[in-house]
Amino acid sequence: MTITSLILAFYNRGMADQSNPVMKYMPYVFPIMLLGIFNGMAAALTYYYFLSNVISIALQWVIQTFIINHDKIHAQIQANKAKPQSKSKWAEKLEEMQKRQAEMQKTRKK
Prior knowledge:
elongated, 79% helix
């Protein structure tokens, strides 16, 4: 169970929240902690986690290999980068308010 959990954590390492340093190492520490906790419990729980990890690894491999077209996604990202970004209505209103405030401050200084 611990080995399959570590393999799953290694396989998912790009999905973890990289901004929090604790969460960066938690997927690797947690299976080792569970090894100590589950060592004295019934084997069925450990077997359940083992099967769950094996199924998750297999599903992710199938999805990454056969379902997701990485070239198509990369082409779409590049196409979106080339498009000019339009401002949202909120950003336009905020910019307009800032311009008005700047004009008001100029008139007060005079």
